[in-house]
Specification:
The structure holds two protein chains of two kinds. In chain A, 53% of the residues lie in helices and 18% in strands. By secondary structure, chain A is an alpha+beta fold. In chain A, the strands form five sheets. In chain A, strands 1, 2, 3, 4, 5 and 6 form a six-stranded antiparallel sheet that branches. In chain A, strands 8-7-11-10-9 form a five-stranded antiparallel sheet. A five-stranded antiparallel sheet of chain A has the order 13-12-16-15-14. Chain B has 21 helices and five strands. Chain B has a five-stranded parallel sheet with strand order 2-1-3-4-5, with helices on both faces. The A-B interface holds A 575-576, 579-592, 594-595, 598, 638, 641, 645, 648-649, 652, 655-656, 699-701, 744-746, 748 and B 13, 15-16, 18-20, 22-23, 25-26, 28, 40, 59-64, 67, 84, 86-89, 92, 105-110.
Amino acid sequence: MKIVHKLILGAVLPAALIASIGLVTNHLTRRVLTSALENNTLARSRALLDEVDRLMATHVAEWRSYALSAVVQEALASSNATFDHMSSAQEQIDSDDDAWRATPAERNTPLMDRLFSNDLAIDMKNRLFRLDGDNTFPLFREVFVTNRYGANIAQTNRTSDYRQDDEDWWRLAKKNGIYVGDVGFDESAGVNSTDICLRIDDAGGRFAGVLKVVLNIAEPIAILDARAAASQPSNAGDPSLRYILFTRNLKVIHDTANLAAFVSDGAEFFADAFGTSDAASNTEDRVFHDSARDRVTTFGVSHGHANYAGLGWILMSSYDANSVFRPMRELQRLFLIVSIGAAAATVLGGGFIAMRLSNRINILKNAALVMGKQEQFEPVNVGGADELTQLADTFNNMATDLHRSHSALHSHVEAVQHKYDMLTVEIGERLRAENALENQREQLRAILASVDEAIVTADEDGLIHLYNKAAERIFGYSLDEAIGLHISVLAPSLFSAQRFERLQESGDAEFLGRTNESQGVHKNGASFPIHVAATSVAHDDQRHLVALMRDLRDEKAKEAQRTHAQKLESIGQLAAGIAHEINTPIQYVGDNTHFVQENIVALLKLLDQYAQFRESTREGKDVSAQIEAIETATEDLDLPFVSEEIPKAITQTLDGVSRVTEIVRAMKEFSHPGGVEPTLTNLNNAIKSTITVCRNRWKYVADLNMDFQDDLPMAPCLIGEFNQVMLNLIVNAADAIAEKLGEGSEQKGEIAVSTRQEGDSIVIRVKDTGGGIPADIVNRIFDPFFTTKTVGRGTGQGLAISHDVIVNKHGGEIECDSKVNVGTTFIVRLPIAGKPAAQSAEVSKEDGRKAA
Amino acid sequence: MADKLKILFVDDEQKVLDGLRRLLHCKRKEWDMVFANSGAEALKLFEERSFAVIVTDMRMPGMSGDELLTEIRKRHPETIRLVLSGQADKDSILQSVGPIHQFMQKPCDAATLTATINRTIQLEALLANEDLKSMVTELESLPILPKNQEELMQKLQTPGVSPNLIGDAIGQDVAMTAKILQLVNSSFFALQRRVSSPGDAVSLLGLETVRSLVVTMQVFSQVSAETPSEFSQEDLLSRCTDVAATARRIAAIENMSTEAVSETYMAGLLHDVGKLVLAVKRPDAFAEAVRLAKSESLPEEEAERRVIGTSHSEIGAFLLGLWAFENPIVESAAYHHCPSKSNTDSFTTLTAVHVAGAIVQQSTSKLVDLPLEVDTEYLERLGLIDRLDAWRDECRLAA
């Protein structure tokens, strides 16, 4: 780490520390404040609840003491005594209860009137009036007392029924001493109320009756509203406080923010805060901080007061935390700005000092770096006046000394280096020369190994001394086996012993300086066609034979395939035409036969009718019906037509059959595969068959004239291949005519095919009246793949193969005589004696091709 | 007799003409037959008189058969154009198939020849008016939905695509389906077996041939005529494929043979092909018929009859018959609205197409509770009225 970085780090670290302390302090403050606020709020809710509880407890205590007052006790004692003495108190109560409930609300029974107006009732009414005092609303709505039998003995308002001991409140009050009912809303009175029911015992501690007072709960609500209102405006921008008072069943009693929410279900507030609204679980005070809405909500639960168990009500206080934390946030921001400012100041100050120090040290460092390289040494100046300045002076002295001794050493080294360089150059040149030689050898070896042809050299005695990879592959001998063998082993007929003798005597042999086709012999004894080019080379006063030999098997196979493909192609093209040629006669053969069959049947039937008629006439029967039948039949038959047409139909049928027969025979002859050896053939017949087979190819464009010499001698011929040649020539002639005429022409051209014997040859001429072949391409027509036809019409192989068949396989000639716009004649000459024997054994290729 | 059917036979081989003359001599009371030796002679004969049917050879010196038929289509569109040829080479047949209605292969036996010609006479009865007839006979192809054609082109250019995929692409379009089945069934392939799905047709022709038919020869080329705005080709197409699928389902429920089920699908697909013809050939009248049907709530057939004089049913049947479609398919086109006019008494392809049409109509209608508009009289006659609910439920399930 550079010094400057260290110094800067020294400034940055404290700055970061300051900033982080600021942040942590901030966070802690916020937490403490929040917690204090929450506790405070909760305490406030509790206090408020306590106040409500206390109020309720006071009311209970007041009524309890009233229950012990003389007026109540006496009235109860008297009533209980009366009922005690009744023989059937329950039945009396039941009958009174029925009468009570049956009475409409606007009317009173005498019993009711009594209960409204007795001493106790009047006392209770007065008491209610007194208790209301200065309040703007009545504190209690009604009060009534029952005796121990559950029958009303005094009331301030009419109760719904007379018998009360069947009510839950009555029984619970009797059992527990007190019962506080749930909060309810009395719509007729428009107030919220709850029932307080007290058990009354007599002086002897016996159960004497129950007092029920309906408490208006406007009072605790008024307290809440007052508190809420008090906290709100006291400090503008203070937490907007909201109180909600719930019963223990989570019903909303009062919501300071929503007055209409009374008695609505408050479960959602609890569900929000605690994820559950189970009433039983809300028995403890709780705090809930809703950070999403930034509200703090506390739930206080009433726990009663003194020996009063309390209502179990729950008070929810909720306020907006945001407004509470605003001052704290401002403090936080200030804190941050100050700490960032302090950090920045530290970084800037520290950084400046660090850069300055670093610059001066760099001057020294750079001077030390260039010291050894420069001719002259320049003393350095770092400025200032501290320890660094002294260091620079010391450095200057040392450098001056060092520079002096360095110069002396340098001139010595230069002299040595020069000598060394001279030596290196000399060695390099020698190495390069050797490499080049080796590379050339490598290349030569690679070429020899990679060529497809066998390369073999032999000395004057014919002993092999060079033999490449291809030779190994072609002849089967490995390099080691071949070295020292006589070259005649590889091609005995070409490199025969006599020829080598002649070579040694005269320095020349038949096989030198030309290409030869011969038979090669494999190590395993198999022989195969090879192509050999041999030359002799003089080297080191010795004559060497160099032979390049190529295996011809693949080429021969390919050629065979090519011929076969061409044959298939022509057969394919012919097949559709032949089908057409056959379908046409079959059509009229079928039609005519059908006609003959139907009419012969009808004729026979007519004959039969005549026979019957004759019979009937002979027997003298009435024949008028038969005559009529015969007349109808004759008319249906159209006898003149039939008798004229049936013979014609049969003639044409036979005609058609013979046409089909001829085509089938010609097909058979044409497709005859022939042998590999030429056989004596009647060329006239062969040509006729070919013409028949391809009739469909020419008949729409041309008339074909045959001019055959009757006594044409037979000639040796490879019939399959010869037919192919004739097919090519005739189809070409037809195509040439079609091209000249153009499509849809009414005219036809002419094809003339003739055979003649001329000297030792048979000459076949195929002449057309097509467009002729332009002079500039007439020389190329026998080249493989040369075609002027559109793609798909021909492979361009036809004439090349024809040439091969006539010239190479039959020892004949093929030539072409063409005039543009007049027509073309192809002339084929076949030797009657067949191919010369010498030629067939060992062919030295010369171009047998002639073009006129 | 003045009402003899006038038929012209053309062949360059006199012996073929002689044979035909003899073979058909027994028909002389119904047919008025004339024989010509070349295309030129045939055209000369046409100058003097008209023929209802022409039967010609294909390969002839001078004018070939397809050249002759192209000329006749131009000059006498109402003549039905048949070919009797000895050609056996698929490509040259398909190349000349354009102006040909039906192709017969030499050698053709007497029964096939007379049946083919007789069938065209029966078709004649469908359309009384020469004008209406020539509207159909001069037709070479039907309007193809451009997007269907594009999709087919794209698929054809996909290397290694399967014939079935190409068949599916063609099968989406009524016009393409009709054309390729005509090509296959009206040519010499028909001798081997009837083909009733585009997929089979493609397999039979081979992808290369289909490619050259579509790309080079453009047998699916777009008809340039505008169709009226009242008519949505796309809606027709989606309805036809729905009907086809539903009819196939019904045929399957009724245990028809696999071939018949597939034929039923074709019958469903092609049953409204007459509408395509009308949309191209009589766009104004057809548009008026559509408007009339809507404004007076008439059945579409009735409206077409009032405006045009015939309906898409007869026209479709005529076209399909002319294009050598099988009788069940032709019958479904002819009677899909009123099957009781047919004289069958058992469940047929027509039954399936008729019911399928009603089911599709009901299920695609925006009106709720539209009654199923089937010919109840017809179904009762067939004793199949009870099956209706089963068919409907099954088809609903499938939908």
